[in-house]
Amino acid sequence: MTDNSSEPILEVNDLCVSYGKVEALHHVSLKVRPGEIVTVIGPNGAGKTTLLSAIMGVLPFTHGEIRYQGEASRHIDIEQMVARGMTLVPEKRELFGDMSVADNLLLGAFMRRRLGFRDERDTLERVYGIFPRLRERHQQTAGTLSGGERQMLAVGRALMAQPKILMLDEPSLGLAPLIVREIFRVIGDLRDLGVAILLVEQNARAALQVSDYGYVLETGEIALAGPSDQLEDDPKVVESYLGLGGKH
Amino acid sequence: MDLQIALLLGQDGIVNGAIYALLALALVLVFAVTRVIFIPQGEFVAYGALTLASLQAGQVPGTLWLLLACGVAVAVIDAPASLRFGKGRFAKLLGWQVLYPIVVAALVLGTAPGDWPMALQVLLALAVVVPLGPQLYRLAYQPIAEAPVLVLLIVSVAVHLALVGLGLLFFGAEGSRTPAFSEASFDIGGLTITGQSLWVIGASAVLIVALYIFFEKSLYGKALRATAVNRAGARLMGISTTLAGKLTFLLAAMIGTLSGILIAPITTVYYDTGFLIGLKGFVGAIVGGLASYPVAAAGALLVGLLEAFSSFWASAFKEVIVFTLIIPVLVWRSLASRHHEEEE
């Protein structure tokens, strides 16, 4: 469903982010179009989480520009980004551990309710359709879930906001292969619904297989970029991230 | 001590304990959501009682001027940010922070609330005092919302001292007492139960149930719980720290003001009475580790009973005994629970 001619929903131009004197991102640029899955792969500490945090408005940036839906964001205001349809599933999930699965999901629609939408019950049914396991567990508190279920809940909660762009930070981290496959199947299905997805992953193979376009982030800089199927065949990517017969 | 005295003291203890329980719940709530130890909680008790008393006496309560001043201050500070979000947000800001205080002032100055029925006087007192809660959050706490707990505590002490000073300015050093909500009294087996005691216990119970329903069933109640459980997660859902803070302070101010209005007929309230009452609620909250609502409420009831009985046996040491309770509680808590480092 990718439409390369359409305007990007998210555009990052020449972005620099610093923690004190240490610059974590150097002049990073990327684009995400509606209905497209874009992945950023790279080793630990390359700045992937920093990139998502800056886009979401959690972190300030020192240089460059983040344009969302054609409008540059200047102020740090997560609330505003959520209201405009951007949702982040953070690496640590950040679930509400003492609260029930159903309440966690309903709170995902908090901003929509504030904006006057009253469709959270329908959305809840859709999320239960995507993750039947969550329906089974809806009365349990989030803290009692297994790792895979917690990730399903984190993604499900993000979907309750009916995002226009969904950003996922390491959704496969620490999960069993079967659950990783499940999560990536859902990510693929979401794209077909027209949701733009920015996926940050260390699991490069799965990420490149599901995505349309990929960036390789190394020590805060974009080292490589291209359509995902081309990146999968790129010898440098193969050697560093896919490890297919890369042994010399 | 015979049974009758014991029952009388028990009644006294439960009535006071009910008020302490309300304050303890508010303290736990404020701490859980904003990490602020809300020392000025007691000032809302005093402001509530004294505002009602001066309305009934046909005077203009000084808290009205504070409401107007804080409203203007908040409107000035928030004007640029609200304009950035559009005219609607700006109109809302002006409506709540400027127009609303003016309407309340017009009611107080233009009509004669002294002649109103008591229920309306109570509502008017609430209308004057409760908005000070969110205003206080905006002016004193929101700019330092991410500061460590200790900094927030120091600011709380400062706000408390400022409000006590303003209380003296507004209401003078004289204490006030308001007429009882009900003059009825019941005689059960030689024990006289006053209508006011029943009002206090009943109103506290209703308020506690209402709070429970709010937190269990309503979206905003759940949003506050979510903020208490995981601030970062809540922010990613669009539940901003500011919204949660203002809502929490609104609830805490409402609980404090209502407590003051409830006890005003039982005890003479001075401008600085609130601090001691708030502290006793705090002892109750500490019993619950500033985290558990039911244990905090039970602890507060215990404080009320302990206070009543110690006033009989050793009235000179009444306060000492109540506040000494905190030492065994802290020892017990430190032994019983594993120590958690504060997450920063």
> What oligomeric state do these chains adopt?
heterodimer
Task: Output mean pLDDT of chain B.
Answer: 91
Strand order in the sheet with the most strands of chain B: 1-2
Please describe the biggest sheet of chain B, giving its number of strands, its sense, and whether it closes into a barrel.
2 strands, antiparallel
Average of pLDDT of chain A = 90
Order of helices and strands of chain A: EEEHEEHEHHHHHEHEHEEHH
**Major sheet of chain A: order of its strands?**
6-7-8-3-9-10
Global geometry of chain B: globular
Distance between the termini of chain B: 52 Å
Cα radius of gyration of chain A in angstroms? 18 Å
Secondary structure class of chain A reads alpha/beta
> How many extended strands of chain A?
10
- In total, the number of strands of chain B is 2
The rounded Rg of chain B comes to: 20 Å
From the N-terminal CA to the C-terminal CA of chain A, the straight-line distance is 39 Å
Describe this structure in words.
The complex is a heterodimer of chains A (248) and B (344). Chain A is of the alpha/beta class and 248 residues long. The mean pLDDT of chain A is 90. Chain A has helices spanning 48-56, 78-83, 101-108, 110-114, 120-130, 132-136, 147-159, 177-192, 204-210, 228-233, 235-242; strands at 10-19, 22-32, 37-41, 63-68, 71-72, 86-89, 165-169, 196-201, 213-218, 221-227. In chain A, strand 4 (63-68) and strand 5 form a beta hairpin. A 6-stranded mixed beta sheet of chain A has the order 6-7-8-3-9-10, sandwiched between helices. A 4-stranded antiparallel beta sheet of chain A has the order 2-1-4-5, covered by helices on one side. Helices cover 38% and strands 25% of the residues of chain A. By secondary structure, chain B is mostly helical. Chain B is built from 15 helices and 2 strands. Chain B has a two-stranded antiparallel sheet with strand order 1-2. In chain B, helix 1 runs parallel beside helix 8, helix 1 runs antiparallel to helix 11 (241-263) and helix 1 crosses helix 12 (273-287). The radius of gyration of chain B is 20 Å and the shape is globular. The N and C termini of chain B lie far apart (52 Å). The mean pLDDT of chain B is 91. Classes of the chains: A alpha/beta (248), B mainly alpha (344).
